Amino acid sequence: AMGSKESVGPAQGLLRVDAEDAAGASLWMPEPHQFLGEPVFVPRALGVGAEAPIREDDGYVVGILFDGRAGSSEVLVFDAAKVAAGPISRVPLRSQLPHGLHGCWSPGPVPSEAALQEAWSKSPLDLSAGR
């Protein structure tokens, strides 16, 4: 993620760099009041019997976008090979996440919908307002 050219501030956009070809760099920038957090690369899932990806950018880049004007957050998904084209998916979140939150990709087990609902029900925040 990178910051705006106009001023110093938190990381804002997404820059894809090709270490072998500087002309292969591409940039996506959100609105001036939006900030993309730490991007995480997620390899494209392969079907049964499929060969391994040929390109190192065969996958997705996922990040959390904080909108300072709206006070909201959403998950953005980019095609890793076409960052400048912008997100291919945007998922609004029910609550605002702080800019700078980070994590990692894990292809392992995912909690069930029931486990997620149980965890949300124990949250001290009222997350049902957005439903």
Unreliable stretches: none
Q: How much helix, percentage-wise, in residues?
A: under 10%
Helix vs. strand class: mainly beta
Total E-strand runs: 7
- The N- to C-terminal Cα distance equals 31 Å
Mean pLDDT figure: 81
The topology string of helices and strands comes to EEEEEEEH
Tally of DSSP helical segments? 1
Cα gyration radius (Å) = 17 Å
Inertia-based shape:
flat
Percent in strands: 25-35%
How does the SSE layout of this entry go?
Layout: E1 14-16, E2 26-28, E3 34-36, E4 40-43, E5 59-67, E6 72-79, E7 89-92, H1 113-121
What does this protein structure show overall?
By secondary structure, this protein is mainly β. 7% of the residues lie in helices and 26% in strands. The protein contains one helix and seven strands. Strands 3, 4, 5, 6 and 7 form a five-stranded antiparallel beta sheet that branches. A two-stranded antiparallel ribbon has the order 1-2. It is flat, with a radius of gyration of 17 Å. The chain starts with 13 loop residues before the first strand and ends in a 10-residue tail after the last helix.
